[in-house]
Amino acid sequence: MATPGHLTIRNVSKTYSLPGRPLVNVLSRVNLDVEPGAFVTIVGPSGCGKSTLLRLIIGLDDDYKGEIELNDKRIVGTALSRGIVFQDHRLLPWLTLEQNIGLSLENSGWTRAEKDLAVREHIALVSLSGFEKAYPHELSGGMAQRAAIARGLASRPEILLLDEPLGALDALTRIHLQDEIQRIWEVEGVTMILVTHDVEEAIFLSNKVVVMAAKPGRIVETLDIDLPFPRDRAAPAFVALKRRILTAMGEDGGKPTARAA
Amino acid sequence: MSNTSDTIEAAAVEAATVDLPAHAEATGRRGLQLPNLTGFILPFIILVLWQAAATYKWIDPVFLPAPLTVMTAFWKMLTKQKLAFDFLASINIVGQAFIYGSAAALLLGIAAGLSRKVEEFFGPTFDTIRHIPGIAWLPLIVLWLGIGAPAKILVIAKSVFFPVFLNTLQGIRNVEKNYIELAKVLTLTRWQLIRKVILPAAMPSIMVSLRYAAGLAWALVVVAEGLSGLEGLGFLIFRAQGLLLTDQLLVCMVIIGLVGFAIDRSMFLAQKRVLKWKQGYDG
Q1: Residue A168's CB: how many other CB atoms inside 10 A?
Q2: Which range (A34-43, A193-202, A246-255, B89-98) has the least confidence?
Q3: Which of A180, B184, B209, B226 is 20 to 30 A from residue A126's alpha carbon, by CA?
Q4: Residue A145 domain-assigned?
Q5: B143 occurs within a structural domain
Q6: Chain B 173-202, CB below 8 Å of chain A: which residues?
Q7: Is B169 inside any structural domain?
Q8: Per the domain annotation, does B281 fall within a domain?
């Protein structure tokens, strides 16, 4: 079982400078504390910097001010202790499902047997047993995204980042995979941070929802979600939270059916 | 360098996909029923027309001997002359030229693809050499190496080199940035990145160019042998023309066509095997 990580983000700011253009504040003084084993979701409009924040946490971008620490250690570059699932499944088309998952263990330092076991366990975890030798083009969109989740978890990271992982899926598959993610989070006990446009998805899955706004990219509200799991999307408390978050997100607020764009 | 390579690549893709659908059908049904005979209809019609042209004297037999005469000539060339020897001489040249040319192209193409410095170092020189056709090199190379096999191997290897080099380079440069990012997230080393991500991603482009280059090499050996030397199918063809041995000329032409067909089909099978992961490759 993975050791859940404790993520601390302190005063993180990031600017983009393009020659001849004014500086763009992508992130402005962001503070966030993610408890070990928590499920935190970041919602916000396009351009609020939520995906940029994930890139900083995963270590693909080191050019920022402030501190990001995992278990009190400053994050430098990428590491197997931090996993990520992208919106596109990003499975390598020339590798089979098990090879794709195994790729995340290349530098784990584990023995052959430990790697094989981890691959097998994680394929089972996302209910893809029997598809070990399948190539990505033989998998449906939902299956490919589950495989990507298995790859993100196989190296037993302390934290798993999910960058709009269900954004490209159809509505039914998305709801089904939300159940799956909820179950996987409870089974694995790993800290998870999800970025999404979908407020309902955020409430369904999280202990805590962080609402961000754009220009400059910043956190405007943080809500603890105390509803018991599994959650009922039609429960009055659920709907009330949804309305509250939409309001916090600004112009889309107040319209219960609206999904923030 | 990359501007001109696009057209080469496009041409190579075209060359490699021309007869793909017919073949896909043929292999798909193999073992279940009779092989698909659609592809044999046209050759049969041509053979019938050829025989008719001979029988009804539409064309002077000196210029177009009957199919049976050509078959007899084939047998004579095989048993009384040394057709097999000439055939193997051509195959030997093409085989060596293809192996040397493509091996050098893969090596340098990968190096140039991975490093802009290497590309910049070779770029101008290669782009100039590339535009001097192999056949234009032949006279000089023959002066140096003589009329034997080495001169032809060198010239054909040069013609094999460029499409493979450019497609390898371009194939590597076209690797999706997302995959590089993924490799970084998975903490792959540079060597792991090259082996597990970059080379497989470039493989479709490389395989297309190898198939194209193999066909090109076979076509060129005939020209090279016709221009210099005293053996090989190309030599036989031009000798037959000079001696007005039209039946022998046709024997050589048919052999060249069939061997070219066989080369292309085997390259296609190799391509299908290497790229079995590729979507839409149901050949």
Answers
A1: 14
A2: A246-255
A3: B184
A4: no
A5: yes
A6: 178-179, 181-182, 184-189, 192, 196-197, 200-201
A7: yes
A8: no
